[in-house]
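Q: What would this complex look like in 3D?
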Amino acid sequence: VGRKGGGVLLVGGDDATAEALRAAAEPLEMRVAVAEGLAAGLRKIAEERPVVTLLSLDMPGVDLDLASRLAEEGSVGALVLLSDQVGPKLAMDAARAGAEDVIGTPVSAAALTEVLRAATARATSVALPDDRALAEDGLIGGSAGLVDAFKTIGRVGPSAATVLVTGESGTGKELVAQAIHRISPRARNPFVAVNCAAIPEDLLESELFGHERGAFTGAVSRKIGRFERAHGGTIFLDEIGDMSLVLQAKILRVLQEREIERLGGEERVRVDVRVVAATHRDLGALIENGDFREDLYYRLAVVKLHLPPLRERGTDVRDLTLYYAGRFAREHERPITAVSEEALEILGRHGWPGNVRELRNVLERAVLLGTGDTLLAEHIDLEGRAGPAAPQPRAATLPGYSPEMSMAEVEALHMEQVLRRVKGHYGRAAEILGMHRNTVSRKAMEYGIGVG
Amino acid sequence: VNPIERTPLRFESADATLPDLPDLRLLREALVDASRVDEAQIWGGGARLSTIDKRLIALGDVEQRISEIGDRVRRRTERVMISAVAALRAVEEKDEAAACRHLVAAGEAEEAQNRLDEARAYYEKALEVGRRPRDRRGESLALRRLARVARARGELDRALALYSESREVADASRDPEGFVIGCLGAGHVLTDQGRWPDARESYLRGVERVASEESAEFVHLCNGLSVVERRLGDFEASEEWLVRGEAVAPAAGDETAAAYLQHGRGKLYLAKGDPEAAQAVFRDALGRPLDFAARIVTLLNLAEALRMAGRLSESEASTRRAEELAIAHGDLPHLPHVYVELGELARQRGDRDGFIFFEQALDVLRERGLPPLDIALAQRSYARFEARFGDRDAAIARFRIAEEIHRRIGSERDAEEVALEVERLEAGPSDINEDHDGKQ
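A: Here is my prediction, written as structure tokens for the whole assembly.
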């Protein structure tokens, strides 16, 4: 075969079809072989092992039974049937016989190109894992960084140690916390998660510690807080770096005294809770700025566990893609059973600023958009992807900008934003800023910009 | 602090820092408009729970808009003063009917910026002046404006009395248009109170006296009657009124009225349990030119239809689009509806953290003095959310608050519905999944 796109074999069909096929195969870099009769065709199939076989149903001795046997036997690659009498019944019967497609003759080169492209994608696709594998949790992959994280989970899970999970947004910090809980002696008791960044400041305290009726406007009844709900189990404090200093002090007190007090209440309630905390922020820098208590940091970071960003996890993207494609296909009842190599390549090349959460969103959308049984490159929408709360499509204003700033300060601020956005990648920042990479690196040093 | 390390202010901090004064209302709208999603949180686990409170304020944007905001204040003040002086001039010329109209115009300028107390003061003066002349159309108009403010304030009994009086004055002064608008307004208030047969009666009186079927008033009356019949469960009659309204809406040339009819048709499909057909109607409406407020309402209706059809991701996307639009226009009154819808979605998804949306909705409603009916409806949704997660005490407490509000504003039927929900909650399982939200 020898060419990039593999080989395509035409069995039967007239000269015009052969000509159209050659024209269609050229841009796809596929080699074309033609067999005029059935016997020659079967011989060529055995010799060539084509990626796609086009079989004419109008040839003597060829019918849907034969097509079915060939498709089942598998050496034909993707089987596409040709006929000058294509109708709904034949289309249905052909699908039942295992053919990828059935097309009417005469056929144009453009139509054949599409058929070949789709058939090739399906023939070179990767099957999704079975249901049993899908039952596992979402911590998927075998990259070095993830394996290190697994080892730490295995080591600290059974203990009672407080764990601090760090990593960019969307890397799966809550999954780690759940895994730690699951292998701990507390597994039968509750796992309670709190996102400290999402809950409004004035509600977070009552959410964590509970309140008595009438403790404040809106406290319509007595409420049990999440620390109490997690009694005997694990509480996961996500985005701990976004918590106010006042609440940090209260969390520290809980960690020290293992007691909480409901808002508006007088009694102290004993709680037996393991704390797993997480943040995407650089707590060291926050401590330096006075935004995070150092004593709380040391209480939380008894064991530190870092989750690498997806772009550093190599082939994990592939494993995660197969996992999530399978999961969403099942959830949305879509007939997808495989992902094409081309789609996997595109996903593997992406930078994934939103990490696994972003990949998940892209795949859910792809599964919903997908029409056949294989997820193709055309179903992957990386341009139109949107996070759960995407920024508004409007002119952005530099956060922190003030008209009193000097040009140098504005430049530094803008560079910092750009570097944050590209996760410190100087090459990509240089493209956005319209500067040479070395200039970006020099100025970043000059302005003391760190990318946290 | 080095500007590079400065963390932009969150909306919740900005909001908590400023007093809640009418003078700062436009500034608050500008803060909403200048708020941005915290990009560092976009892919965080809590992003699905994001609300206006967690957005970051670009204070530079607000600073740049101060003179524009000042201009809006100045233009309003100027309009009010021009109208006030014109009223004085009319009094000098013994034209009290004109004086009344000018005072109403001053009130309208205040009302347009949601300064209801100030608007009410002008309308009361207009009424005082309008009672004197032979031409009592000004009096009828002032009464209707006072009724509108009372309705916006949730003073439904007062609003109803004012609309009734306006109708009588209009009738006595041979002002058929004023009479019909009075019927329409009274019908709306009775609808707010859940007094469906009385609302029907009021709308029908309007239909009997309307000068032309090809008028905006007639289309609004048809829509009101369709709502009433739908709420009474007579879908066929509801459909008939919609058809009558739709037949004359193009000739009436009132796009708002046409949009209401379309809204009513979608709601009718929802009531009939056909969310797919409702979606088609709302999507069609979105394809037409709509002002931002109508677009927000339509997006929320579409979200509800999608949620009912179990298409939760799409429902969330539609709600978030409504939120973006409300934020881009600094439109605080619609934000609570957005957050209640997101809360409903969280309930359906079994996402306990969805309480954040209800708290945010109530916060905006309370802080902005928005209609009590909206607070009652938000509390009812919140109560169902609490019940869904087994917190029966909190659910009952919230239902009781809603019931009390309904009784206070005179919507007895809604109050009874809530009392029934409490009864069921006390007797049955903790999860109430049926919807009885009393929305129009």
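A: To summarize the key features: The first strand of chain A starts at residue 7 and ends at 11. Chain A touches chain B through 56 residues (CB under 8 Å).
Q: Very helpful, thank you.
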